[in-house]
Design goal:
It contains 6 helices and 4 strands.
């Protein structure tokens, strides 16, 4: 339910601030973090990035990690999936802590995104993006469903 709430909020961002995907990414990454913390019954404070990394590593498919490995280029070189996850987490932090939601641009069409690209200047670096917000949303939603299925499977008979 938590992931669904954050995805719903992210969906509303397109109505509020059209073509500002950083606002959507904020909620997508918060959803990933929340799912991971709930799955692993994390009771403490902080460790947000570690839980985001856990989400992508534990609940996302290899296909989705491969998509992330072709999502962003820096200096004409594709980021690894780990670098792309860190980049998305940093976008979340830019929005949450600095109010910076206007630099990043993503291709709008999820079908053509892997073939088309947009270059923007993010955090003093040129970044070429080849993934749409809809693609990122699908990765998070699929990972959240997979985490829910694993949680139920791991806790059958415990109630």
């Amino acid at each position: 339910h938590q992931a669904a709430r954050f995805l719903w909020l992210a969906d509303r961002m397109e109505d509020i601030a059209k073509s500002r995907p950083s606002l959507q990414i904020l909620f997508y990454i918060i959803a990933a973090e929340t799912v991971s913390k709930l799955f692993f019954n994390f009771q403490g404070e902080g460790q947000s990035k570690a839980h985001v990394v856990n989400f992508f590593g534990e609940f996302c498919t290899e296909k989705h990690r491969e998509l992330l490995a072709k999502a962003f280029k820096k200096e004409h070189i594709f980021m690894t999936s780990e670098e792309a996850i860190s980049f998305l987490y940093n976008i979340r932090c830019d929005v949450a802590h600095r109010g910076n939601y206007y630099e990043l641009q993503l291709p709008s069409d999820p079908i053509s995104a892997p073939m088309s690209s947009l270059s923007t200047f993010v955090n003093n670096e040129f970044i070429e993006s080849r993934i749409s917000s809809a693609n990122i949303r699908q990765i998070i939603a699929t990972g959240a469903v997979r985490a829910s299925q694993l949680f139920i499977q791991n806790h059958k008979g415990a109630a």
